[in-house]
Amino acid sequence: MKRIALIRNSYSFDVGGAEIFPVNLAKLLASNDYEPLVLSANKQTLAMASAAGLKAIHSPWWSFQNYSGFKIFLFPVYVVWMLVLSAWYSLFFLKNRIDVVHPQSRDDFIAATVAAKLLHRKVIWTDHADLKYIYTNHKKWYKNPVGKLVYLVSKLADKITIESFSEKKLIEASLAERLPSNYEVIYIGVVDNYKPTKQRGGALVLVSTSRLVKAKGIGELIAAFKLIDTTNVVLKLCGDGPDADHFKSLAGGAKNIEFLGHINNVVQVLEKADVLVHPSYHEGFGLSLVEAEMCSLPIIACNVGSIPEIVRDGGSGILVDAKSVEDLAEAMNSLIKNPKLRINMGRAGRQIFLNNFQLDKIVKEKFLPLYVGG
C-alpha cells in the first residue's frame, strides 16, 4: 500500500479550496487502497482531516512569507530555514515510509521536494494559484530570490499540476517563457454528494461561500444587494476572514443579510439556496463555483481568471465585470425575477459539473496514474 504525504500550509484564516482539496483528495486515496497522510499547520485543514478519520500531522511552517523590498536581505535566513525544514521532512518521510510526496504550498515546494528527491521518492506538486506570484520578476537577477529558488527546485518535480488554463497563462507570463513539460493542467473538483431537496419555499436565498476578504468582492456584493428590491430575499454569507468586521459594518445590521461564519459542510447551505453569488476580483480555481454547479445552482460571478472555464455565461450563470456594483445588482435582479431562468441555468451547471468536475473521476483518471507512473 503506497503512502502519500499531502502537504498544504497556509494561514489558519485561509479556508478555501486550497485547504479543502488535500482533505478531499486524501479521502479518495484512502478508498483506492492508498494510505494518505495530511500535513498542515492550518488548524482548519487538520480539523477537517481528523473529522474524516484521516491521519493528520501538524507540520512546521513559518508564517513570515513576505520577502519583498528590503526584506530580501533576509534571504540567507530563509535558506537556513529551508535546510532545517528539509531535514525535518527527510526524517518524517523515512520514519513514516512515504512513497510519494505531494506538496501544495511554496516553502514545501522547496523543502519537501529536496527531502523527497534525496530519498529517491516521487514528487507531485499542485499549485493553488500561487506560482504566478511566486515567479514574479523571475527574469530580474536582483529580485525575488525565493521565486528563483522555487523555479530551480521545480525541475526536480515529476509533475506539477495547475488548476486551470488561466493560471497556466499567468504563470507563463510571470516566467516570460513557456512552461516546461512537467507542468500539466488538471482541474480540481468535488465528490458528488448532492442530495436534491424538496421544492424550496419561503424567502429566496442568495448565498456567497468564500473567505471574508476584500478581494472576494464581498463589499461590492453587499452594496449591490442594497440597490435591489430585497423583499422576501435573503443574502447569506458563509465564511470568515480578517475583513469580517468591516463587512458587518457595511451591512449595517440589515436583517436580511446573514453572516454564517465558517461552515464545515457548505453543501448543506447550497442545497437550501437559490443563487450563488461569487464576485471575486480574481480566481485561480473557484471550488465554490463547482460546488454550486453540483447543487444545480445558477451562478453570478466575475468574468476573471478561471471562472469562464467553470461557468458558461448565459448558460450556467451570468458573468459580470469585477468590482461593478451596478452590473452585480442587475444580474441579481435578473435571476430573482426569473425562476425559469434559475432552473435552466442550474440544470446546465449540473451537467457541466458531471462532465468536468467530479473529483473521484479526476483522481482515478489523472492523479493515480501520476502516483504509480514511471
Task: Give structural notes.
There is one protein chain. The strands form 2 sheets. A 7-stranded parallel beta sheet has the order 3-2-1-4-5-6-7, sandwiched between helices. The longest helix is centred in the N-terminal third of the chain and has 21 residues, at 75-95. The protein contains 15 helices and 13 strands. The radius of gyration is 21 Å and the shape is globular. The chain has 2 domains: 3-190 and 358-372, 3-Layer(aba) Sandwich (Rossmann fold), CATH 3.40.50.2000; 204-356, Rossmann fold (3-Layer(aba) Sandwich), CATH 3.40.50.2000. The protein is α/β, with parallel strands linked by helices.
Outline: globular
Helical residue percent?
Answer: 40-55%
**Oligomer classification:** single chain
User: With helices defined by DSSP (H or I, 4 residues minimum), what is the helix count?
Assistant: 15
List keywords for this structure.
alpha/beta; Rossmann fold; 2 domains; 15 helices; 13 strands
In short:
This protein is of the alpha/beta class and 374 residues long.
How do the strands and helices of this protein lay out in sequence?
Blueprint: E1 3-7, H1 17-31, E2 35-40, H2 43-51, E3 55-58, H3 75-95, E4 100-103, H4 106-118, E5 122-127, H5 131-134, H6 145-154, E6 159-162, H7 165-175, E7 183-185, E8 204-209, H8 218-227, E9 233-238, H9 244-251, E10 257-261, H10 266-270, E11 275-278, H11 287-294, E12 299-302, H12 307-310, E13 317-320, H13 325-336, H14 339-356, H15 359-372
Parallel strand pairs: 1-2, 1-4, 2-3, 4-5, 5-6, 6-7, 8-9, 8-11, 9-10, 11-12, 12-13
Helix pairs in contact: 1-2, 1-15, 3-4, 4-6, 8-13, 11-14
